[in-house]
Amino acid sequence: MRIRREVIKFALPLFFFSFWAVVSLKGFKPSLFDVLLVLVHPTKDIFGIGSLVSCMVVSLKEIGIGYSVAAFAGVILGILFYYKTFDDFFGSTINTLRHIPDVAWIPLLLVWAGIGIKSIVTVIFLESFFPYRDKYGVWSEEYATALNRIWRVFRC
Amino acid sequence: MRRLFKILLPVLIIIGWEAISVFLIRNEFILPRVESIVFVLMHPLQDILGCGSLVKSAIISIERVLIGFCIATLVAVPLGIGMGWSEKTHDFFYSAVELLRPVPPLAWVPLALAWFKIGLTSIVFIIFIGAFFPILLDTIHGVNGIRRTWVESAYTLGANERLILYKVVIPGAAPTIWTGLRVGFGIAWMCVVAAEMLPGITSGLGYLIMYSYNWGMVDTIIAGMLTIGLIGLAMDFVFRAVETKEFKWRGLV
Description:
The structure holds two protein chains of two kinds. Chain A is an all-alpha fold. Helix content of chain A is about 80%, strand content about 0%.
């Protein structure tokens, strides 16, 4: 029964890849075999722009910087939102900015920061910052509500 | 007093922006004056560089989002209900969903262009991918979250499986499905802006801000960004209002 369940779980991907292999043999592009060839040679240079591994290292580095800054700022700000004054002061501005998609910042960032790591890291920062702030903001609100209830019970 | 305090930061930002623009930067191509941005926003029907007005671009973008979002909803909600309700359906689709889910919508762009060429279909496909997974996952989560006691009570009262699905499971999962739709719409809105920045696209808000960038019109870029943000905010408000009105009971159970 357990084996049958595992078979069902992988049936769709297996069917998909088998179908892709068959149509690739008949000349469909992108061919599954070309894709596999790139994947099994991850250190091979592609069109002179570096290998899969080197591109991945560059992306991870950019994510590392943008994400660390966003996580730090997001958690700190999120916790500070526990204070009503802080929430009142920053809330409306952050809530408005949150609804601008990160990609919409790209033209402005290209003007302000130019093409390069600064723009990329800022986009990653924006992408990661708001979920953090939201999460910890919600946590702070829930925490505040719970504390208020306790205070009310003990008539503080 | 509290209301005034709430708008203090936006007011300070506007004053600071104007001061920096006038006294420090003094370059409209880097930091335009607030009045230039307000001028663009106050004339939303005026044609910008021959690529349509703010309103026209916004309508085109909203149309594209609605098409992609509706298709994603029509596919993801029934599939999610099926995956949440039936173990076999869940097992069959699970690996494929888990395999494709982590791929960001924008990473599909080259493949979408190769398959559907430049045009509405590729834009709708990217929006579909963006909205599909949040809706699907929240639908599965909503159906899985139905209390066993509700289902068992319905069985005890003589309901069959089909009736339970329509009268207990779907209404019970509706608040979580709605949250998925809200999140999905937000991502769809992000995707349309990104998709409209692709080469070959000649309309929509994403195109407008990218085109303005090429002409160095930073005031139009910022006005476009604000319009995108305001539409996103309005859509989110509508979703939240329905959530508060229709699914108030969620907090009571």
